[in-house]
Amino acid sequence: MTVLPILIAPDPKLKAKAKKVDAVDDETLKLMNDMVETMHSANGIGLAAPQVGVSKRIIVVDILPKDERGRPIRMANPEIIWASEEDELREEGCLSLPDQYADVLRPKNVRVRYVDHENEIREIDAEGMLSVCVQHEIDHLEGTLFVDYLSTLRRKMIIRKLQKIQKLAEANA
Ligand code: GNR
Ligand code: NI
Predict the structure, then answer these.
(1) What global pTM score does this model have?
(2) Domain 12-172 CATH (choose: 3.40.50.300, 3.90.45.10, 3.10.20.310, 3.40.50.720)
(3) Cβ atoms 35, 52 nearer than 8 A
(4) Extents of the domains making up the chain
(5) Which of 136, 146, 147 to mutate to test the pocket of ligand 1 (most atoms within 8 A of CB)?
(6) Residue identifier of the C-alpha nearest atom 13 of ligand 1
(7) Which of 6, 92, 103, 131 best tests ligand 1's pocket when mutated (most atoms within 8 Å of CB)?
(8) Phi-psi region at 99: left, alpha or beta (left = phi > 0; alpha = psi -120 to 50)
């Protein structure tokens, strides 16, 4: 497995709509496994393919703490097929928006249909952190970041800050 570099906003690749996967073949499975390794090495609880520069509808999720890891969920073409009426506000972060956090309102529970790492169609009911994480990852496949739910002013301030940090890093490289 390989740890892949994670793109930081603003990057046009994070704003693109990702393309459906035809089938989970060996190449897709390798990408899924590399994404799991990348997510774990970055201490993330989820990762979407666009974050590693691949515009495909693939996400991985592992909400368990470090010592309980080992059952990450690998999903191709995930779709929310049901969402609760009830919403819930939770603080979110994103590996593509380092050190930025904000409360986001989303449906409390969702039912997700996806193709698993063995190319089988599956469904899961998600609640709590799993629900937030899966919705956050599916947003990435649409080119949506959690800052897109904030006010324009707050979003622009965050993106400008990250842009400055990256320009400084480039100048010192
Ligand atoms: O690691 C992550 N933590 C997190 C916390 C609250 C809500 C969503 C997330 S997902 C994030 C990893 C990431 O950026 N996935 O796209
Ligand atoms: Ni994210």
Answers:
(1) 0.97
(2) 3.90.45.10
(3) yes
(4) 12-172
(5) 136
(6) 94
(7) 92
(8) left
| pLDDT value for 1 | 87
Provide the token pair at 144.
Answer: 């949506």
The token duo for 155 is 């979003």
15, two tokens: 């704003």
The model's pLDDT over 39-97, given as tens digits with 9 standing for 90+, comes to 999 999 999 999 999 999 999 999 987 777 668 999 999 999 999 999 999 999 999 99
Query: Is the C-alpha dihedral spanning 163, 166, 167, 168 positive or negative?
Result: positive
- Both tokens of 73, joined, read 């969920």
127 in catalytic set: no
What are 167's two structure tokens? 């320009």
Q: Pairing mode, if any, of strands 110-115 and 58-61?
A: unpaired
Pick the atom of ligand 1 nearest to 48's CA.
16
Residue-wise pLDDT tens digits, 122-138? 999 999 999 999 999 99
Q: Any residues with Cβ below 6 Å from ligand 1, and which?
A: 44-48, 51, 92-96, 132-133, 136-137, 140
